[in-house]
């Protein structure tokens, strides 16, 4: 299908990780599924999948949450691309980004993994880095706190107050990428540095 997109939200499985900063990609997918009035169902690609159109006649979105830990997301993503017969250029990965301040989005096509193990595994499994990323800023850890500990902690109470707007903006960005292209989404959502 020319209008179909695979949108993958990165995170870790299970309720213990659900509120972690590392799971913000899956939080964005929950917002998108709500908008599509679609529920996630187990899929044979070791993922949970929800499908629908963002608007009548609009692009078809396949929302997928790998049921694996983030560091091994690549296998399910590669299987999903094969199952839906999609090129990697029709893949949007929504993920947390330490190098962007909290409450900020950046949209990028291609590039490296930047130390993000979920992206690293997707690049390795698909053999390509030519997919779109919606990078949801979570900021750097305070003081000397290790990054690995920071991303596996829940958002702070202050952050949680602004989180619904951030998730809605990221969902809007995904819908705009699918409907109008990456350049339009970048023009709308990138903030001045």
Task: Describe the model.
- This protein has 193 residues and is an alpha/beta fold.
- The chain has a single domain, classed as 3-Layer(aba) Sandwich (Rossmann fold).
- 36% of the residues lie in helices and 21% in strands.
- The protein is built from six helices and seven strands.
- It has a seven-stranded mixed β-sheet with strand order 2-3-4-1-5-7-6, with helices on both faces.
- Strand 3 (47-53) and strand 4 (60-66) form a beta hairpin.
- Helix 1 (24-36) packs across helix 5 (157-180).
- The radius of gyration is 15 Å and the shape is globular.
- The mean pLDDT is 93.
Query: What do we call the CATH topology?
Result: Rossmann fold
Strand order of the largest sheet: 2-3-4-1-5-7-6
- Strand segment tally: 7
Q: What class, by secondary structure content? A: alpha/beta
Beginning-to-end CA distance, first to last residue: 37 Å
The biggest beta sheet, please?
7 strands, mixed
Overall pLDDT:
93
Report the order of strands and helices.
Answer: EHEEEHEEHEHHH
- As a percent range, the share of helical residues equals 25-40%
Q: What is the assigned CATH homologous superfamily?
A: Peptidyl-tRNA hydrolase
**In the CATH hierarchy, what is the architecture at level 2?**
3-Layer(aba) Sandwich
Indicate the overall shape: globular
User: Proportion of β residues?
Assistant: 15-25%
The low-confidence parts are none
Counting structural domains, the number is 1
CATH class: Alpha Beta
Number of helical runs?
6
């Amino acid at each position: 299908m020319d209008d179909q997109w695979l949108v993958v939200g990165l995170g870790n499985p299970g309720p213990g990780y659900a509120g972690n900063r590392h799971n913000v990609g899956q939080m964005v997918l929950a917002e998108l599924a709500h908008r599509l009035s679609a529920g996630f169902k187990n899929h044979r690609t070791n993922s949970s999948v929800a499908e629908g159109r963002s608007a009548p006649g609009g692009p078809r979105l396949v929302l997928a949450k790998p049921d694996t830990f983030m560091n091994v997301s690549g296998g399910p993503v590669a299987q999903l691309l094969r199952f839906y017969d999609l090129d990697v250029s029709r893949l949007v990965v929504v993920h947390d980004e330490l190098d962007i301040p909290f409450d900020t989005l950046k949209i990028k096509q291609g590039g490296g993994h930047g130390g993000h193990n979920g992206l690293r595994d997707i690049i390795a499994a698909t053999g390509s880095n030519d997919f779109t990323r919606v990078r949801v800023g979570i900021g750097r850890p305070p003081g000397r706190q290790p990054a690995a500990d920071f991303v596996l902690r829940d958002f702070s109470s202050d952050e949680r107050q602004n989180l619904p707007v951030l998730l809605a903006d990221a969902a809007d960005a995904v819908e705009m990428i699918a409907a109008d292209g990456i350049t339009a989404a970048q023009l709308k959502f990138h903030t001045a540095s």
